[in-house]
Design a protein that fits this description.
single chain, about 400 residues, alpha/beta, Rossmann fold, 12 strands
Length: about 400
Amino acid sequence: MMDINSDSTRCIFLLAGEASGDSIGADLMARLKDHPESGKLEFSGVGGAHMSAQGLVSLFPITDLSVMGMVDVVFRLPLLLWRVRQTIDHIIRTAPQLVVLIDSQVFSNLVAAGLKKRGFRSPILLYVSPTVWAYKPQRARKIAPLYDEVMAILPFEPEVMRSLGGPECSYVGHPAIQSYSCSGSDRGSRKSGRIILMPGSREGELRRHLPMFGKAAERLVAGFPGLEFAIITLPHLHDKISATCENWPFRVDVVSATEQREDWLSGAGLAICVAGTATLELAMARVPMVVSYVMDAAQKSVNRRLQVRRFSLPNLILEQDLVPELLMEKPDADLLAKRAADLLRDESGVQEQVDGFSLIYDSMKTGTPDFPRRDPAERVLFHLYGATLRQEGNP
């Protein structure tokens, strides 16, 4: 690491547009604070509860950006465009030495493009690679001028980005790697009768999935008496989801506190989960799962054209059909309940998933020979102090 001027404070602007990005951003802030070569840092930007706990005062509520799918984007387009302009204006006015945009791909690209257009010259990093390996591979070249580096959370993404002519890309893993030790396959104290429901956190996801998850759970209760259910969600959604579930004909705990969340993740025998980064957390915690996703109108059109074979992250990382997937054009609680019931009865299938999760953990912990796992804080500090030293006239 280059020598730094300990009397100078560097400002980093971070933006997370959804719950998963908030967790990633908080982890990055904590790593930077603890890094012995970080120097004096100041943070600004947009984040949620986890980043706020690390000291960030958010420019505006993270919930303004928590949208998924074209239908949700179109509905909230005026607000999103206003937030894009507000973010760009703030960055230009405050002139941070580094910008880190975390996921929220459309919003992040608009911000990065706007900054470039207005002559912003400090490094801009994208944390979480766009899914160019799934659709629209041409996006890799299009974002190459926008970012100085992409920090990927999946081990195969840097090679894909390189082959498609995208920006420099490094593999940094996911914070869930640090939270769980997945080196063994012993299920220990797990209880097959404890079921986690994870219906998503974005408004559109909840609208399409929560009622279906409730009906599927009701069908499971009829076939497996004594099941216990918990919905894992975020603190700001706790009351809303609790109100939705209060008339369900079975008991369900709505869990948002960290301790309760960890208790369920360490003891559950099965999860029913919306596709997304939550499946990585479940895999790291060795919770067998059924993954589903109900598409909106635009996503249906894309899927009909591409015929996506796999969409859950565990299956994509291993390149095999490890966990059951249900990509739906409309909610089907009966089918979802059947897949979950099949897994509850299939101890060998459960063990196969757990063993596969250990392989995923090993892959995510080390990376690949060409792209070994790097510390995201060190990638940030490389760009931060490299750029600052060049601006100060140092070699």
